[in-house]
Amino acid sequence: RGTRRFGLLMTQIMLVLVTVVLVANVLLGRPVLDSLLFAAALAVGITPELLPAIVTVTLSQGAKRLTERGVMVRRLVAIENLGSMDVLCTDKTGTLTIGEVRLDRAVDAAGTASGHTLRLAMLNAALQTAMANPLDSAILARRGDVDIAAARKLGEVPYDFERKRLSVLVADDDGPTLICKGAVGPMLDCCTAIEIGGVAAPLTAEHRADAESRLAEWSGDGFRVIAIATRELSSGTCSADDEAGLTLVGYLVFSDPLKPGIVDTVAALARNGIELRVISGDNRYVAAHVATEIGLKPRIVTGAQIETLHGAALARFIRGANVFAEVTPDIKERIIAALRHTGATVGYMGDGINDAPALRAADIGISVDNAVDAAKATADVILLRQDLNVLLEGVLAGRTAFGNTIKYIAITISANFGNMISMAV
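Now predict its structure.
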């Protein structure tokens, strides 16, 4: 965009100069053809002829420097975009945290450690085949504690970002059982009963309030919580319609500590004019905790609050917000577009298949070397290490490349203008 604006400015200056010189020469009685050729020569003389070559060489040198710093550039023009970035949007897992999700504990609906809850979670994680994810990996890391050899899978309802849950139909000791795990809020909406002391009872408003209180407490301490629920089925098949009338069994509580030094990195980004925005599918309590721990003063907006907003209205609503929680992939994309609508140069950092739309919508899409293929194919820049320090070095190298281009333009234009205006006079 900057190059196009500069080209338009040069075109306008050339037209004015050519017109003035041509008219002046004609009024002075000089031959029209000679006057036209002289005016055209002045126009050519003003032009920084080597600009395309200088830009290419500068960007190539910038790409080389970035590679040495662990940043791979898929498109040369992305280097200057990277240097221009003033808003960075990122998820928290693996970027702000170490990315090693661990199962801290499995508890029943009353919050007491429960082997039954752990076994159900193990069956769900071991038998689902739709999509590998770090939560299932963390569950399966505890496999030595649980015997699930006798269980047989009958069916599966894969995870999606609208339902926010995953179900597996298992043939176990008690016949076909649908085991469902997912985000606590959506799971509670599907439950009509709760298991307390091994006995199912109707799920009351008091039970729901207690569950939401536990969620707020655990999430406020930085833990990620998912719920486990079951339902007995009579047939050997299942669908999303069967995720109703469930019995809440318990919760899985996961931890993912912050990266060492992340507070200093976020402060360094701010000193270099880059504002951090956290965009996460986790609940608002976890997102707020992480934002506070990394040195931000969280101003939270949830996906539900912006679900019906679009365009300029969305841009006005999210102005000043720095934490977006409980968002789906399509809302991530709309947030990026809205931030760009405010005039910011927006970078988005993501590594999952659900990040591809937001990566495409950003001015500068940033992924990592171990990301899924869809994310890497969409990104403009790929980090060889999932580290914001590497990204900051890339931004500074991008600014150096941009600065070198500006230096050439300034030197050439000043010389050319002086020469051509002298000739015109």
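The chain has a mean pLDDT of 87.
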